[in-house]
Design goal:
Chain lengths: 319, 224
C-alpha cells in the first residue's frame, strides 16, 4: 500500500519551502520594493535554517527510529551544554555535572530508544534529581545549595527530558503502525511543523498588531496579540492538516495546534527570562555567527510533552 | 619552465616541521579534533590572522587543557610549527602523557622545581624554538585558582628582550577552568572560547613591569 498521506505532507512542505525560497530570492534581487532589507535577510536566513532542518530530519527519518532518537539525543546534549555554560556553577558541582552529561543524558535516551515508558518517565525527574542533590552535598560545598542544584535540574528537565518526548512519539503504537513507522514519523513531523509555524506566526502577528507586551522586562517583542494570533493560526493549520496526524480527529488536532502554540510561546518567554538574567542575547554567543541550539528548540522543549500526552489521552493508546 | 623572476618572487620556504611518524601525526589530528569537540571551543581571531611565521602565543592559565586547546585551535599548518611550553612535573608523569607531550604535540618541558642559573627556562625555550618554531606560553606560571588573571612573571619580558623580532600574540581562554577545574581529572563538556589578539612587541627602552602590565592588559582586552 502506498503511503499517500506521507507523500502529500512531504510534497506540501517542499512546495511551500520552494515557493518561499523563490519569493525570498526575488526580494533579495529587487531591493527597490520598499521593503526593509534587514527583514528580507532575516527571512532568507530563517528559510535556510528550515532547509537544513528538513534535510537533517529527512536523513534521520530515512535511517529509521533509532537514528532519529540518537539525533534528538545529540541535540539535547548540545542544548544542555549551552544551558550549563551560561548558568554559573561552582567547583563543587563539577562531579555532579560530569554524571549528568555522560551518564544520565545518554541513559535517558537509551530508555527512550528501548520504549521503556515507565522507566524514562521517572528516570530524570526522580532519580537524576536525587542524585544531583546528593552528589553536590557529598562534594562539601553548601553555598547557595538549592539554587545550584535547581539550575542543573532545570537544564536537565528542559533540554533533555522535555525534548525527548518528541522522538518518543516514534515509539507509540498508533493506528497504522503495524504497517511501518510512516504514521509515527508523520505525527512527529506534524509536531515540528506546528512548533515552527507557531514561532513564525508569533513574530508576524506581533509585528502587525502587537500593542501589549506580555512582560516588557523579559522580552521586547512578545505580545499578547502575538500569542493569540499564533495560537489561532496554528490551530487553523493543525485543522487543515489533521488528516496527516494519525490518531487525531479534526477537533483534537485543532486543540493540539492551539496548545502547541501556547506552550511554544511559554518556552520562548522562559528562555528569554534566563537569557536576560545572564545578560546575553542568545545562547549561541559563544559560537560565532549564529544563534545557539537552545534558541532554536526552546519552544519545542515546552510543546513536546503536552503534544505527547494529548496524543495518549485522545487516542487511548498505552505507550 | 621557471624563469628567474618566478623563483625570486616565491615566498621564503615555510619552516620545516620535525619529521614525525604517521601514527603520531594521526594521533595529533585526532587529539586536536577531540579537544575542540570536548571543550566546545569557538575560535576568534580579533585583528589578527593565523600565520606560520615565528610567534609566541601567551595566554591566561586556567586548566591543564589550556595548552592542548590553544594548540588544537590553530590551523593544521600552524600547529605543526608550534610547540607548547609545559610543566615537566605534570607532562612527564606516566607513559601516555609523556608520549603525548614528546611525540604528538612536541612540547617543550620545563622543570619548575629545579631551575638552574645558567640554564634558565627562557634559554631552554629559545634554544628549542630555534629559528622557526612558535611557542605557547603561560606567563602567570601556574593555573589561577579564582579564575582571575594573575600578575605575569618576567619570563615573557626576557623572551621579548632576547628575541625582539618575535610576534607576541595575546590569547584569552574563556570558560576552560569550568571544563576541567584544578584538581579534577574528568572533564565536563561545556563551551569555551579562545580569542587570539593582534601582535605586540617590546618597545625600545620599555621597563619590565610596564611591558608585563601591557601584555596582561592585552589578554584582558580580549575578554570583552
Amino acid at each position: 500500500m502506498t503511503d499517500y498521506r506521507t507523500i502529500a505532507l512531504v510534497a506540501g512542505v517542499l512546495a511551500l519551502l520552494t515557493a518561499a525560497t523563490a519569493v525570498g530570492q526575488f526580494l533579495r534581487r529587487h531591493p527597490d520594493r520598499g521593503l526593509d532589507p534587514a527583514a528580507i535577510k532575516t527571512f532568507n536566513r530563517r528559510l535556510r535554517g528550515w532547509w537544513i532542518l528538513c534535510t537533517v530530519l529527512a536523513a534521520a527519518f530515512w535511517f529509521g527510529t533509532t537514528a532519529t532518537v540518537v539525533l534528538f539525543g545529540l541535540v539535547s546534549f548540545w542544548a544542555l551544554r549551552e544551558f550549563i555554560t551560561l548558568t554559573p556553577t561552582r567547583k563543587g558541582d563539577h562531579r555532579a555535572l560530569f554524571w549528568v552529561f555522560f551518564a544520565f543524558t545518554p541513559l535517558h535516551y537509551v530508555l527512550v530508544a528501548l520504549n521503556l515508558y515507565d522507566a524514562f518517565s521517572v528516570f530524570l525527574p526522580v532519580y537524576a534529581t536525587l542524585f544531583v542533590l546528593a552528589r553536590v552535598a557529598f562534594a562539601g560545598d553548601y553555598k547557595r545549595f538549592l539554587e545550584r542544584t535547581a539550575k542543573i535540574q532545570a537544564g536537565l528537565v528542559v533540554c533533555v527530558y522535555c525534548l525527548s518526548f518528541a522522538p518518543a512519539l516514534l515509539q507509540l503504537p498508533l493506528p497504522g503502525s503495524e504497517a511501518g513507522p510512516g504514521s509515527n514519523f508523520r505525527l512527529l513531523f506534524f509536531l515540528i511543523l506546528l512548533v515552527q509555524f507557531a514561532d513564525c506566526m508569533q513574530y508576524v502577528w506581533s509585528q502587525m498588531l502587537g500593542q501589549r507586551l506580555v512582560a516588557a522586562a523579559v522580552s521586547s517583542n512578545r505580545t499578547w496579540e502575538g500569542l493569540l494570533g499564533s495560537a489561532a493560526s496554528t490551530a487553523l493549520l493543525a485543522a487543515a492538516l489533521w488528516w496527516a496526524a494519525p490518531p487525531f480527529q479534526l477537533w483534537q488536532a485543532t486543540l493540539a495546534g492551539f496548545l502547541v502554540a501556547v506552550m511554544g510561546f511559554a518556552g520562548g518567554m522562559t528562555m528569554s527570562a534566563i537569557k536576560r538574567d545572564r545578560g546575553v542575547k542568545d545562547y549561541g554567543t559563544l559560537v560565532v555567527g549564529h544563534g545557539g541550539v537552545l534558541d532554536r528548540i526552546d519552544s519545542m522543549c515546552f510543546a513536546a510533552p503536552i503534544f505527547y500526552h494529548i496524543t495518549l489521552l485522545v487516542s487511548g493508546i498505552k505507550p | 619552465m621557471l624563469s628567474p623572476a618566478d623563483i625570486r618572487d616565491r615566498q621564503p620556504p615555510a619552516p620545516i616541521p620535525r619529521p614525525r611518524s604517521a601514527v603520531c601525526r594521526a594521533a595529533g589530528l585526532g587529539l586536536a579534533a577531540l579537544a575542540r569537540l570536548l571543550a566546545g571551543a569557538s575560535v576568534r581571531w580579533i585583528a589578527s590572522q593565523p600565520d606560520t611565521c615565528q610567534r609566541v602565543y601567551f595566554a591566561n592559565h586556567t586548566s591543564h587543557l589550556d595548552a592542548l586547546v590553544i594548540w588544537a585551535s590553530l590551523p593544521q599548518s600552524v600547529r605543526e610549527v608550534t610547540r607548547p611550553v609545559a610543566a615537566k612535573d605534570y607532562w612527564s608523569r606516566g607513559f601516555v602523557r609523556r608520549w603525548l607531550a614528546q611525540e604528538v604535540f612536541d612540547a617543550i618541558l620545563i622543570d619548575r622545581t629545579d631551575i638552574k642559573v645558567h640554564q634558565s627556562p627562557v634559554d631552554v625555550m629559545l634554544r628549542e624554538a630555534g629559528p622557526s618554531h612558535s611557542l605557547i606560553v603561560f606567563p602567570e606560571g601556574s593555573r589561577s585558582v579564582t579564575g582571575e588573571i594573575g600578575e605575569f612573571k618576567s619570563g615573557l619580558y626576557y623572551l621579548a628582550k632576547k628575541r625582539p623580532e618575535l610576534e607576541l600574540i595575546p590569547v584569552h581562554i574563556d570558560n576552560l577552568n569550568r571544563v576541567l577545574p584544578r584538581g579534577e581529572f574528568l572533564p565536563v563538556p561545556l563551551l569555551s572560547c579562545i580569542s587570539f589578539g593582534p601582535p605586540l612587541w617590546l618597545e625600545r627602552g620599555e621597563a619590565k613591569l610596564d611591558f608585563l602590565a601591557r601584555a596582561r592588559r592585552a589578554v584582558l582586552a580580549l575578554k570583552e
